[in-house]
Every structure is written in C-alpha cells, then in structure tokens.
Amino acid sequence: MSPHTDWADSDWADFDAPGEQKLRRKRTKPQGRRKVADLVADDADLVADATIRRLLDLGHLTRVIGELKSGKEATAYVAEGPRGTALLKIYRDLQARSFRNDAIYRAGQVILDARARRAMEGRSRKGLAMLEESWVLAEYAHLWRLWEAGLSVPEPLVGPRPIDYSETVPAVLMRLIGTEAAPAPRLSDVRLTPEEARKAWDQSVSGLADLLRLGYAHGDYSTYNLLWWEDTVTIIDFPQLTTRQSPHFRELLRRDAESLSTSFRKHGLHLGAEATLREVQRRALGPGPTPRVLLP
Ligand SMILES: Nc1ncnc2c1ncn2[C@@H]1O[C@H](COP(=O)(O)OP(=O)(O)OP(=O)(O)O)[C@@H](O)[C@H]1O
Ligand SMILES: [Mg+2]
C-alpha cells in the first residue's frame, strides 16, 4: 500500500454513494506528530490542493465533489465544470513514473528540440519536469485524437488547443462516465450476465481494433482500463499509448491482446491471446467508427 493510501485511509471519510463506487470526502487533517510516510503523502496532497485551487481560479472547475479512486500514479476526483460533470485525474507520482522504465513506450518518439531531448535523456531536474509534463500532455493529445475519430473514450473537457490544456498540468479533465452519484465501474469490478459479457467482449475487441486502425497500441489494455456503463464499454487511461513508430509496437499490441484475453477470463470468456490478436487485426481492416464533429 502506498503512503498516500495510508494517509487517505485515515483522513478521508468514506461515504457510500448510491452507485457502484465510493466517493470520499476530506476530513480535517490529524494534529500532532506525523510519520515520514504522512509527510510524503502530504506533499502529494498539497500538489493536489494547489492544482484544484488553480483549476477553480482559471474557471476549468466550479466544484470538486469527492475523491473517487487513488491509483498507482494518479488520483481521480469527481468534479463539476462549465461543461458538466467531470473526472479530474491528478497525477501525483510522475517522478516515479519518469524514473521507471518508460523507455519501451518512448522508443521511436521524435523530440525535435535537441535541448529538450538532451534534458529528458539526462534526466536532469528540468528534464524530469519536462517528462512529467509530457505524460499529461500526451494523455490530452491522445484523448482529443481518439474522441475526434469517434472512439468510445471520455470526452476531453479542455482543449483541443495544447495551449489551453497545458494550463491544467498535472491534471487531466475529461467527462465523467456514469453519473456523479454512480460513476461507471471498471469491467474488472462488475459481475456480468453471459450475454452482457459477450457484448462487453465484442466492444472491447473492437475498441482495440479501432486503436490499431489509427496506428496505436494502448499499452495497458485490460478490464482495469475499460469502464462499463449502460451496456457500453469506454476505454480509459492513455498516457502510454504507442504509435507504429515505436520499434516495440508489435510487442505492445500483442501484450494488449493478451491482457485483454486474460482479464476477460473472470467473465467466462476464454479466447486465447493469439486468437484475440488475430480477431483484433481482422476487425482493424474493416470500417471504423464515424468521426465526431467538433463544434467551435
Ligand atoms: N472518465 C471517467 N469516468 C469515470 N471514471 C473514470 C474516468 N476516468 C477514470 N476513471 C476512474 O478513475 C480510475 C483511475 O483512472 P486511470 O485508470 O486513468 O488512472 P491510473 O493512474 O491508471 O489509475 P489506476 O492505477 O487506478 O488504474 C479508473 O480506474 C476509473 O475507476
Ligand atoms: Mg488505469
């Protein structure tokens, strides 16, 4: 369990939302002596607080309703903004991500600015900050591209101009799938009837095919990153999306097909990894979804 989770458990009161997932609200911070772990967690919390304040000031948000989920690298909040109910994803451990082996996702990426490239490769302080920012900007850029292409992904709520969405770093704002009271659960968390499972599988395979048709591998495609709402699958979590430029593209695509196939076993579906990959490739040759028209 991460220090943040420890801290969160003692300081955020769970309350039951009527829906499938729990929202959390903040209680007062504990007084007196703190453990080191708490101090580390407090840093992350301060970043989140400062980010939320800035987004409120800039008008990207009007209200934060509660914390939805604290994951490996980001904390997800349910919030409200001028364009409706939003999922606010605040990255809190980008340094860890940047230090981790992200080379497989970055290989083949072209960074035109030689100074920036050297800073990132050398992992200087400035370079790390750039890397951190680039994960967030990448998630927005991918969301916009996929949303415009008509894929089943959450609508990004800031942009499409990078100059606009760069204001929200280290957070990403997108439309909440589900409702404020009952955010959509992940496919990994639901029980499905056999018929629902077949539908979810069919849409998930098509989702990966849609990505492949556009020249992408997701990089982390499993029921943990697929939401289920009103019989519809929505793909989430895109910072590690990889293009065909990458020398690891085939390997990442194969891994996506494999984790999709493995993670669906609990729903009673057993198509093997190879057969799943072939089906994804077959569907990618067919017609894609209808592109969305963006209104100004
Ligand atoms: N648009 C959305 N609508 C509703 N819920 C969402 C949305 N986007 C993300 N979530 C929820 O927030 C969680 C974290 O989002 P995401 O998977 O993008 O981040 P992560 O850093 O990979 O976190 P984790 O380690 O939990 O997977 C998801 O598991 C999901 O429950
Ligand atoms: Mg995820």
UniProtKB/TrEMBL annotation:
Family, per entry: Belongs to the protein kinase superfamily. RIO-type Ser/Thr kinase family.
PANTHER family on file: SERINE/THREONINE-PROTEIN KINASE RIO1
Key words of the record: ATP-binding, Kinase, Magnesium, Metal-binding, Nucleotide-binding, Serine/threonine-protein kinase, Transferase
Family annotation (InterPro entries): Kinase-like_dom_sf (IPR011009), RIO-type_Ser/Thr_kinase (IPR051272), RIO_dom (IPR018934), RIO_kinase (IPR000687)
A GO term for molecular function: ATP binding
Domain (RIO kinase) ranges: 30-282
EC identifiers of the protein: 2.7.11.1
Catalytic activity, reaction form: L-threonyl-[protein] + ATP = O-phospho-L-threonyl-[protein] + ADP + H(+); L-seryl-[protein] + ATP = O-phospho-L-seryl-[protein] + ADP + H(+)
Protein's name in the database: non-specific serine/threonine protein kinase
Gene3D superfamilies membership: Phosphorylase Kinase, domain 1, Transferase(Phosphotransferase) domain 1
